[in-house]
Amino acid sequence: MGYVLYSLSLTFLVLATVLYVIRRRWIHLLPVPDYVYQRLPNSFASDVEAGFSSNAFDLSSNISSGDSRAGLDEQGKRKVQKIMRSRKVGFDEARRMFTEQRFAKNNIGPDGRPRDPKFVSFS
Fold first, then answer.
1. Which DSSP category does 37 fall into?
2. pLDDT in tens, 25-42
């Protein structure tokens, strides 16, 4: 009985190792649901279609002028989209939350002023 358990364990371990090593050959055959991975847009026109535009953050001038840049920042779009989905808010509110999170991370207050006690401002 011990030999059967040992044989099955060793066979499983070898098979799992081989599948892991050659995973690039077979991983594309697995179906990936749409909700797990969603490609982000890579142009201003695609950004507008994906909902990354509003009256306060208008991208139509970029589109009408034929701007050839790649669109908005990929990392920022991912984070804003995550906020939009998790908190069920619109683009402007998600963008505000994202900006405030970045401010807090860099020790800047929500009003845009640094929180550094040594900060001196001449107005």
1. -
2. 988 888 866 555 555 556
- 35-38 long-range Cβ contacts below 8 angstroms, 24+ apart: none
pTM of the model: 0.53
Give the residue from 116, 122, 91 showing the smallest Cα distance to 103: 116
Give the CA count within 13 Å in the CB-facing half-sphere of 123. Answer: 2
Helices (H), 53-90: 60-64, 74-87
pLDDT tens per residue across span 82-120: 888 889 888 888 888 998 888 888 888 888 888 888 877
Cα separation of 68 and 91, whole Å? 23
Contact 90, 84 (CB under 8 A): yes
Strand, coil or helix: what is 101?
Answer: helix
For 71, the token pair is: 């669109």
